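Practice problem: predict the structure.
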Amino acid sequence: MSTQLQLPMPQPRAPGLNLTGLVMSLMADGTWWTPYQLQRAIEALYGEWHSDSSLTARVRELRRAQYGGHVIEKRMRLGTKSYEYRMGY
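Answer:
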């Protein structure tokens, strides 16, 4: 008799939590994130895939007053031509 393989199920998103809220919750700890890392984290947590350009747009939204007017720092990732972002305080 064989046992059925159990696949991990992503957790459901909290009601009313939009993509900007997901990005903000991930970036709230102040660590540096690339869009790719944000993409993989959201996919692992919620089973959702979002494009890099969509995620960088959400990062830019965090600077707007209606989303809290957060300070978002941007720098070139060492040894690459890509950028990484973090939410400053």
